[in-house]
Design brief:
single chain; 3 helices; extended
Length: 132
């Protein structure tokens, strides 16, 4: 865009009608608000289900393929049924985990908005799910 071009911004009303989230020590929106309300620290040692820290720890932050801290924010296990989203189970290995979490989070946000199992219809052309 050239400096002489004017950008037209239209005021378009939007409504946030549903939310979904996954954070360390909180597997959903209610748990997240509880965590914030109580001021709980969700940063923990590396869970045993992840990896042995001694295999990857090095105090030198410049050492490639290593970590230099032993604590972090880790998501709890998230149930995922690929067939629910029309994904063949044999393709999961080639799918990035963040994409799968995005699908589950979007589904959770739509359920929070009242569009879950009820089959309630909505105008999908005027609907967006924003991941961030």
């Amino acid at each position: 865009m050239k400096s002489t071009d004017k950008k037209i911004i239209h005021n378009v009303p939007i409504a946030i009608i549903g939310m979904g989230c996954f954070f360390p020590n909180s597997s959903g929106l209610k748990e997240y608000w509880r965590l914030l309300f109580h001021g709980e620290d969700a940063i923990t040692d590396i869970p045993g289900s992840h990896w042995p820290p001694e295999d990857y720890f090095n105090s030198d932050p410049k050492k490639p393929d290593h970590i230099y801290c032993n604590r972090g924010g880790y998501l709890p296990a998230v149930e995922f049924d690929p067939t629910e989203f029309g994904i063949p189970p044999n393709t999961l290995e080639a799918t990035d985990t963040s994409q799968l979490l995005g699908l589950v989070t979007a589904k959770t946000a739509l359920e929070d908005a009242g569009y879950g199992e009820s089959g309630k219809c909505f105008d999908r052309t005027k609907t967006s799910v924003i991941l961030g």
